[in-house]
């Protein structure tokens, strides 16, 4: 494990470099490019050091930190008045609690076996952080869609967080344990088989690969669910345009020439100058820094827009209380664009995987997102506020589609788990070495069974932590506010 103050290595594999041998015309320290079969073999030999069966074990360490202490630690720097809303959302179910406690699992994962193969990890790869969104070419693709915690780290951590979330989702919608187990196995199997596919592909073809919405729908078993998904895609195309969002979020006040974002406290409100320095200058410095992070051709487009307004907007579960907001820009009176501004702090993985190479955590998020996604929003960029907080920016709801877990059948959960396993494998194959990982995983179902054992055991742990969390609320140790 790396020290907290030690930068992480780049997400390339140390294994391949170690296998390099000096040869004619090559420096002794220059890695030899191994064939896919050789890298698979190198991955297979890792089983001698870290048996696949070791990944199935979960037992809380004796020195495991108190869950409430970890949650309180994650509140540092958040808006105090919004923290009860965060906890109120987390208390809705064990699955909601799991979504908001990424730092708890990060600390736990650091004590589990790891192969030493690193990838650009999501850091918070639960079911609800996958979904559909529009590419700059206006295609809808399925992929990971949350990168607040991204950092180079062991590939196993993402897969363990994903599969444990499948167990909690199955329990949340009250599926029989046997059906939940089938969904977890389907998720793990999908990751293993897709990684094997990527191990056999040319590097460029891996980067070209994308899960467009048609491929996603074709992978669904149920014809009824396929049709329902197609209908939802069509509805999303209509509702997630700036023209649709504009009347929902803005209003004109008096004779003011420009529209402003409507306040809906406590979830949408205009910050004070004390809360967000820069109000007086209309965030000129922060916008300029963000603009510089954009590619030159995107700046030409961005320059067509005039800043109109900014308001705080509470989002998600884990992000509640961080400095997130909604910015309105206009190119003309009938040509708006909404940009979502999200604060970026240190990744929850940093204490265990090494600190980020990027001084700005917004840049860390953007770089990780571009590494992992097949296509990213054209307005994706980063900056820093006058208060020193780091942030990243992207379009708001650009045809974004998220799973409604509560509506899932057993078949839906299996199909969605398979899609998430596929997307995660594709993302890891872009930044890591798919042949090494595939060699370690093997072609049998051994690893699928092992990771399912871990997922079930860790879901039990999360439910135990959830009960501890509820008890702390009842005893008044922490405050939670249920939204009306």
How would you characterize the overall build of this protein?
The protein is α+β, with helices and mostly antiparallel strands. It has 2 domains: 14-238 and 403-474, no CATH class; 256-395, no CATH class. Helices cover 45% and strands 13% of the residues. The protein has 19 helices and 13 strands. It has helices at 14-19, 36-49, 67-73, 83-90, 94-99, 102-109, 155-172, 177-199, 203-208, 213-218, 223-239, 242-249, 284-293, 296-302, 350-353, 361-372, 410-431, 434-441, 446-474, and strands at 118-121, 130-134, 140-144, 151-154, 250-251, 260-261, 268-269, 306-313, 325-332, 335-343, 381-384, 390-395, 401-402. A 6-stranded antiparallel sheet has the order 7-8-9-10-12-11. It has a 3-stranded antiparallel sheet with strand order 3-2-13. A two-stranded antiparallel ribbon has the order 1-4. A hairpin with a 5-residue loop joins strand 11 and strand 12. Helix 7 packs antiparallel against helix 8, helix 8 packs parallel to helix 17 and helix 8 crosses helix 18. The longest helix is centred in the C-terminal third of the chain and has 29 residues, at 446-474. 44% of the residues are buried. Residues 1-5 and 10-27 have low confidence and may be disordered.
């Amino acid at each position: 494990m790396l020290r907290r103050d030690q930068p992480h290595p780049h997400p390339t594999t140390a294994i391949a470099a170690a296998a390099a041998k000096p040869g004619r015309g090559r420096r002794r320290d220059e890695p030899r490019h191994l064939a896919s079969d050789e890298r698979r073999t190198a991955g297979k030999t890792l089983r001698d050091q870290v048996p696949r069966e070791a990944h199935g074990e979960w037992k809380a360490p004796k020195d495991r930190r108190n869950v409430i202490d970890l949650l309180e630690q994650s509140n540092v720097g958040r808006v105090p008045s919004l923290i009860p809303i965060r906890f109120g959302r987390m208390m809705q179910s064990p699955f909601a609690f799991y979504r908001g406690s990424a730092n708890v699992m990060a600390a736990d994962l650091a004590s589990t076996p790891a192969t030493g193969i690193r990838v650009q990890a999501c850091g918070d790869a639960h079911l609800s952080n996958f979904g559909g969104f529009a590419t700059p070419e206006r295609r809808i693709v399925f992929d990971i869609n949350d990168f607040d915690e991204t950092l180079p780290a062991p590939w196993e951590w993402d897969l363990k967080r994903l599969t444990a979330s499948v167990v909690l989702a199955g329990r949340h919608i009250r599926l029989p344990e046997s059906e939940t187990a089938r969904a977890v196995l389907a998720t793990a199997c999908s990751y293993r088989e897709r990684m094997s596919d990527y191990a056999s592909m040319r590097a460029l073809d891996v980067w070209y690969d994308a899960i467009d919405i048609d491929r996603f729908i074709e992978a669904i078993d149920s014809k009824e669910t396929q049709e329902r998904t197609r209908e939802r895609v069509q509805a999303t195309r209509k509702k997630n345009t700036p023209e649709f969002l504009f009347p929902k979020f803005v209003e004109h006040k008096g004779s003011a020439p420009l529209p402003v974002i409507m306040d809906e406290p406590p979830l949408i409100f205009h910050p004070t100058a004390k809360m967000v320095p820069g109000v007086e200058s209309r965030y000129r410095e922060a916008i300029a820094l963000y603009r510089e992070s954009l590619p030159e051709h995107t700046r030409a487009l961005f320059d067509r827009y005039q800043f109109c307004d900014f308001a705080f907007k509470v989002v998600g579960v884990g992000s509640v209380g961080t400095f997130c907001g909604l910015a309105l820009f206009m190119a003309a009176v009938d040509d708006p664009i909404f940009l979502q501004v999200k604060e970026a702090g240190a990744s929850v993985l940093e204490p265990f995987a090494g600190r980020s190479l990027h001084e700005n955590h917004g840049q860390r998020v953007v770089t990780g997102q571009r590494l992992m996604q097949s296509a990213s929003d054209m307005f994706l960029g980063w900056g820093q506020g006058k208060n020193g907080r780091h942030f990243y920016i992207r379009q708001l709801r650009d045809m974004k589609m998220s799973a409604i877990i509560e509506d899932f059948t057993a078949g839906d959960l299996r199909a969605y788990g398979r899609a998430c396993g596929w997307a995660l494998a594709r993302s890891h194959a872009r930044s890591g070495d798919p042949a090494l990982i595939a060699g370690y995983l093997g072609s049998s179902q051994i690893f699928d069974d092992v990771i399912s054992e871990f997922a079930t055991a860790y879901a039990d742990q999360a439910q135990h932590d959830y009960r501890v969390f509820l008890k702390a609320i009842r005893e008044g140790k922490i405050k939670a506010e249920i939204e009306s």
